[in-house]
Model the fold of this input.
Amino acid sequence: MTRLAKAICPVRPKRVPRAVVRIPVELIFDSFLAPCPVGLRASWQVGWQALYRAGDCSLDVRIEPDLSSSRAALIGQISNHASPDVRMGGCAGLSEVGQQSGGGDHQQPVGEFQLEYDQQRRLDLCIQLEGGSKRIVAPLRKIATEGAGLLDVTGARKRVRKN
Done:
């Protein structure tokens, strides 16, 4: 009788969720912190570019804000700097700081990704590496447009020259 009951309603073993290892990131380059070329008092840039290093991975990110709204485009690529011939795969998404990833765009086989989003005060770029057991979380800057100037998250005003 037990055998017949098990045949009708098979018991499935519980799926134990795998622990996700968060790889620590280090900011290597921030375009807002780069000094101006010699002889210039100030420079103006619309986008923000950063390079992060996380373990054997390098994460190159560029944010291009839409100057007429609060939306922005994020373009990036993840690569393995220790073994450049290794293809990086996985899924990229955005999340508010401390939250789970809120959807994303699958990466191309060469590790490139592109996302469009509404800018928020504090966002993280979350990349779930292929296999799902490792995650890279990198903080992003908010670039807010305000009148004729741009304001970055630190509040430093960037001059905009009108032609």
